[in-house]
Design goal:
single chain; 315 residues; mainly alpha; Rossmann fold; Tyrosyl-Transfer RNA Synthetase; two-stranded parallel sheet
């Protein structure tokens, strides 16, 4: 079954992205399309040189993370995405887009909000429907958008004929959810580049400093190092990261010891990735050639879907 996932270069990839997204993606590469949604990174004010740099860094990191058996592509290299988005904008209604929680929270009611932030869920629907995945694994934050994708596919099929496969929504297998080191009640995020986010390209001394400053609590007893998500979110997060990075909490009794173990485990995971990244970054022609070939493949598989949709609406 086809798998599809897009990552937006709205920031630099973090340890959370690695454990929660790139690792599971690397385990599922057969018939997999993994894209960099550079067009989605333009829905809020952006700077061209930063977008270019982050896209290049992300492209190289996906390869360094071992996704070389998937079809890797940049969304903007596959014009069918925007081509289909317009047809779906002619299917979507302003009322339903107005109800999207992310739009309500991020832009509704502000004069300077980009129109593309309003229509972003329609482009996302095009991203998905073009590849005909049978199911879409989706976390809570994107669930409403994928429900809209289904609604648009069903409405389009009803109005114009059966063109789209309506994907099922599935809850992803509970993966590692890494919390911000400075505020362990919220997710570590690539759009918040603070002291609580470990970036995949952070050198070891930066990782050490960020982990050393991680928020814990004031317990000092012999059993202070234990998981308790509600009462001890910081310590629980450090234990989760430690285990997800192949370490063990056996015999640890102090927060200093825990943080040293977490640093070692994280650095051990990041180091080979960074070595591979440096090799790939030194050969940008190779990285470009992988993404060019991926885009070519995407143009081939999406062309018949866009052609069927165009014909169905009378173009
Ligand atoms: P985002 O960075 O929010 O655009 O998410 C890109 C992908 O990384 C999605 O599959 C997320 O589920 C995953 N992801 C992002 N942040 C984390 C995190 N802190 N812990 C685990 N997975 C994450």
């Amino acid at each position: 079954m086809t798998t599809l996932s897009l990552l937006t270069p709205s920031g630099r990839l973090t340890l959370g992205n690695l454990l929660g997204a790139l690792r599971p993606m690397a385990e599922r590469q057969h018939d997999a399309y993994y894209g960099i949604s550079d067009l989605h990174a333009m829905t809020t004010p952006h700077e061209p040189s930063r977008l270019r740099d982050r896209t290049r860094e992300m492209a190289t990191l996906l390869l360094a993370a071992g996704l070389d058996r998937s079809t890797l592509f940049r969304q903007s290299d596959v014009p069918a995405h925007t081509g289909l988005a317009h047809l779906l904008e002619c299917t979507a209604r302003t009322g339903e887009l107005n109800r999207m929680v992310q739009y309500k929270e991020k832009g509704r009611g502000r004069d300077a909000t980009r129109v593309s932030l309003f229509t972003y869920p329609v482009l996302m629907a095009a991203d998905i429907l073009l590849y005909r995945p049978g199911e879409v694994p989706v976390g809570d934050d994107q669930r409403q958008h994928v429900e809209l994708t289904r609604d648009l596919a069903i409405r389009f099929n009803r109005n114009y004929g059966e063109v789209f496969t309506v994907p099922r929504i599935v809850t992803p297998a509970a993966g590692a959810r890494v919390m911000d080191l400075a505020d362990p009640t919220r997710k570590m995020s690539k759009s918040v580049e603070g002291a609580g986010s470990v970036l995949l390209l952070d050198p070891p001394d930066v990782v050490r400093r960020k982990v050393a400053r991680a928020v814990t609590d004031s317990d000092t007893g012999p059993d202070a190092v234990r998981a308790d998500r509600a009462a001890k979110p910081g310590v629980t997060n450090l234990l989760d990261v430690l285990v997800a990075c192949g370490g063990s909490a056996d015999g640890l009794s102090t927060y200093g010891g825990l943080k040293a173990a977490v640093t070692d485990a994280v650095v051990a995971v990041l180091e080979p990735l960074q070595v591979r990244y440096a090799e790939l970054a030194a050969d940008p022609t190779y990285v470009s050639s992988v993404y060019d070939a991926g885009a070519e493949r995407c143009r081939e598989v999406t062309a018949p879907v866009l052609a069927a949709a165009r014909s169905a609406v009378g173009l």
